[in-house]
User: What shape does this take?
Amino acid sequence: MDPIRNPYSPGAGRKPAALVGRDDALWAWSTSLARAERDRTDQPVVLYGLRGVGKTVLLSEFRRNAAKKAWIVAQVEAGSGKSLRELVGEALYEPLADLAHAGAGRRLLKALKTALSFKASYDTTGVWTFGLDLAGTTGGGADTGILDTDLRKLIHDLAQAAEEEGVGLAILVDEAQDLTVEELTTLCVIAHAAAQDSWRVLFAFAGLPSLPRILAEAKSYAERFQYAKIEQIGVDVVAEALTIPSAQEDATWDDDAVDVVVHASGRYPYFLQQFGQATWNVAAGPVIVKHDAELGVVQGNHQLDNGFFRVRWDRATPSEQQYLRAMAADGDEGSSSGVVATRLGRKPKSLGPTRAALIAKGLVYAPEHGVVAFTVPGMAAFIERQIVP
Assistant: This one.
């Protein structure tokens, strides 16, 4: 079928043509938005799960839903080499520039001046003006160099400005496990203060399965955040991820073809998109049949091996790859650090730096003490397919 009309879009954070199986999380976020506009703020939402389950897609949908209500929204991704201070500051520029106008209210003008001072706290050369004369406006003071003080001042003033505009402020952080301890602690403290004093602001975090533990270690009251484990798409709606997009392009799947792709994907959204795209491209159509799906899975797996999995494997050093091979014998369920050490003929303590490096690279995580697991489903099978040098 025509590849130009292919409705499937594998890729990190790319919204699928049919976002299915996430109604509960979207409903909860929509409810929080409505409650915040009535000054009934909720605890931060925390989305956590393996890579490829659609956390970033869901977080971006949160952003879009808030933006549709004209909220001030900043979505950032940690682990990009920039500090939280810089990430938040730059993400806020566009929405604030859109709000700035000659008739702006007192609180909005104050927030704009505070944003200018926050900009100066990490960039002494950059200049923002928002096209307004703020010389006689109160505000500022978000440039002390102390993250907790500066970010708290910025978010407080922006939340007040949002309330004046009849909307709210949303701060969304992807890959939150990659924030520093200071940054995570600061966000937890500010979110707690915002909830206590009913600031019109909502926070949402997304990250690996280790994120809940990391947040709780940063601040104990983070245990009361709203946690949502994002997993495979439910068996009752997973077929719709394939059939709804194709129907929009006047094509259909027969049941056997759907079963082949669903089984091969493990119901993981990223893999559904990859196999759906490959199957579409090999099918004659307009009905996609079992043979098309079988060929699409073969081609899709080849693309995954040379892209999705390969880029992660190649980030590991030879010694780290040996560690990963030792883990792969246990599949995707997780491995005891002691067992991995035994397989490598080493003492567990001597492998601590290797384990820590793999965690830092986001290739593995520690679901519990003394256990490591892959952050990517299917990684163990990929490793088993690699020829030992």
